[in-house]
Amino acid sequence: MKFRIIFSTILGCIVCGCLIIATMPLPLSKSLPYQGLILCYIAFQLVLIELGQTIQTQSEVVYDNILQLNWYRWNRVNRKTLLMFMKILQKPMKMRFYGLLNMNRELILKIFKGVYSVVNLYKATTV
């Protein structure tokens, strides 16, 4: 099941990339529906990436707030619970794409660099 979802996601990215390359030489009136599909796909991905960044940032904020607690006044059971909680939150929570990529703003930069490289390669080969 997991590999089917990964395959369909990668296939969707490839189709989106092919649509971008195929609609570059077309006039605006003919390529507008395809560009709308591409824009919807990109907007959906940006929402997921921003959600992942929010999860990571908020987990870091929670950990920083836990460090500010007056734990030394607590009883032994609560201190152990706090210690376990701190151990869990020591690494920030991250939304991962099937264990392959972290869904955060760094991913946006990687994607934009890749798209920029492909578009420049396409332009260099067609001129």
UniProtKB/TrEMBL annotation:
Membrane-crossing ranges are 5-26, 32-49
A GO CC annotation recorded here is: plasma membrane
The record's keywords, sorted A to Z, are: Cell membrane, Membrane, Olfaction, Receptor, Sensory transduction, Transducer, Transmembrane, Transmembrane helix
Q: Where does the record place a coiled coil?
A: none
Which GO molecular-function terms appear in the entry? odorant binding; olfactory receptor activity
Q: Where in the cell is it found?
A: Cell membrane
Protein's GO biological process: signal transduction
What membrane topology does this protein have? Answer: Multi-pass membrane protein
Q: Write the protein's name.
A: Uncharacterized protein
Q: Which organism is this protein's natural source?
A: Phyllotreta striolata (Striped flea beetle)
